[in-house]
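fyi for ur records
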Amino acid sequence: MSGNESDGDGGVSDDHGVAVVAAVEAIAERIEAERDYLTELDSAIGDADHGGNMARGWAAATEAARDLDDPDPETVCKTVGKTLMAEVGGASGPLFGGSLVFASAELDDGLTAESAVAFAETYLTKVEERGDARVGDQTIVDALTPTVHTFKKSIETDDLPPLEALAKAVDAAERGVAFTVPIRARKGRASYLGWRSVGHQDPGATSVLYILEELLATAADALDAEIPDVDATSPTIPDEATEDDSATTEDD
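which gave:
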């Protein structure tokens, strides 16, 4: 999406609201298409209900978003979050939906690169708080943390265009999902398996990746642009040596 804010008379903000609704629709379609796979992943370490719960929740969220009059990004996200809380069972409802409700407030002044970063950070914080989870627990946090950190750095430090920053964030999420496979689950029902949870991909983290992939595709469509071919690695390592340090090295 662009870095422009609403002019107060519609236009940019309205376009962003329409794009967010389109993203919700795309996410619902993707989750439905991946329902069986998500169920398969969850059957190995959980209750085998993640796919069905997520598909039902996002389908309901799509209907709720479509019913909004003149949607803006904050309202769409808040509506989707509340719907997911009501429709998605288990821990996923509060994690995916409740966190979205809180994070939506960051879009009060419109969707910009800066507000998107704030949104992402708030979402991650709320997920961590609600799930009492950290990186390495084999949860959605393992996908969200590298996503948010990569997106923030890409925008605030590397000064990348939002679409390129989002593409790098999606790559980071993919790496985070892969990270869940060789580690032991320490939260949720999967933790009951102990070391038997090792070798299984976390279904929640996988859903995060699908959601982010659809956000990226929708953003590219909205901007009429190609998805950048990038990865999450940093192209350069900052040189933090001072001029005095350099001079000392040369004298030696």
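The chain has ten helices and no strands. thats all i got for now
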